[in-house]
Design brief:
Largest sheet: 5 strands, mixed
Structural class: alpha+beta
Number of domains: 3
Distance between the termini: 41 Å
Strand content: 15-25%
Helix content: 10-25%
Radius of gyration: 21 Å
Number of strands: 12
Number of helices: 4
Order of helices and strands: EEEEEHHEEEEEEEHH
Bound molecules: zinc ion
Strand order of the largest sheet: 1-4-5-2-3
Length: 212
């Protein structure tokens, strides 16, 4: 069983499945149970088309049966869980990009790619990705674990965090470890080798396109 992400359906699928996103929870059904919810194609799973249904706030077509992604893990296959994660993120992006962040005009969905575009100033908004690092700090045969404030129950993990603009992945590891547990790891490199994150703004995507 494998999930293939996509932007638009190719047609010919024998089956459709609808991942309803209720808040940040998911509920999968063979038909769209939300009359008011907007839909987004998210890909194919074993010949079935998968659609995200962005359920409006306050509605719950699952009658309480929707579960968060933590709880869905283990109940679904890995492919189904990955698809559900994609559905939640696309629904959240759709909800939070209805209006232009620069001028406040109502955005319009782009027909040829997954993006929202402002008809007034041309600003494009793509689904947001947040690069992250995860690392295990070791000393001999010891490993450093920490307890996150958001963890459920007495659980410890290795350290992780989000990459900030202009950082390489190695920079992010050093900063996160220092911030979270006060330990200095690795040597600082002044050259952006290997895993350098983008160090300039995404100029092309942010530019208005008045000709279109
Ligand atoms: Zn605008």
């Amino acid at each position: 069983m494998s999930f293939t992400p996509g932007f638009r359906p190719h047609g010919g699928a024998a089956e459709r499945r609808y991942i309803h996103v209720v808040g940040a929870k998911v509920f999968v059904a063979a038909r769209n149970e939300s009359a008011e919810g907007s839909t987004h194609f998210i890909g194919n799973l074993d010949g079935a088309e998968l659609w995200c249904v962005d359920v409006p706030a306050g509605d719950d077509p699952s009658d309480g049966a929707a579960v968060d992604l933590y709880s869905y893990f283990g109940r679904a296959s890995e492919a189904e869980w990955i698809a559900a994660g994609r559905a939640v993120q696309i629904a959240e992006w759709s909800r939070t990009h209805r209006f232009c962040g620069r001028c406040g005009t109502a955005n319009e969905a782009q027909p040829h790619e997954r993006a929202m575009r402002c008809p007034a100033c041309g600003l494009l908004a793509y689904p947001r990705l947040a690069p992250a690092v995860i690392t295990l700090v070791t000393r001999g045969d010891e490993a450093l674990l920490a307890q996150g404030v958001q963890f459920r129950g007495p659980m410890y993990s290795c350290l992780a965090g989000f990459v900030e603009p202009g950082e390489s992945l190695e920079d992010a590891v050093r900063r996160e470890v220092a911030e979270e547990v006060g330990v200095i790891v690795g040597a600082r490199s002044s050259t952006p080798t290997g895993s350098a994150a983008p160090r300039c703004p995404p100029c092309r995507r942010a530019s208005p396109s008045p000709a279109s």
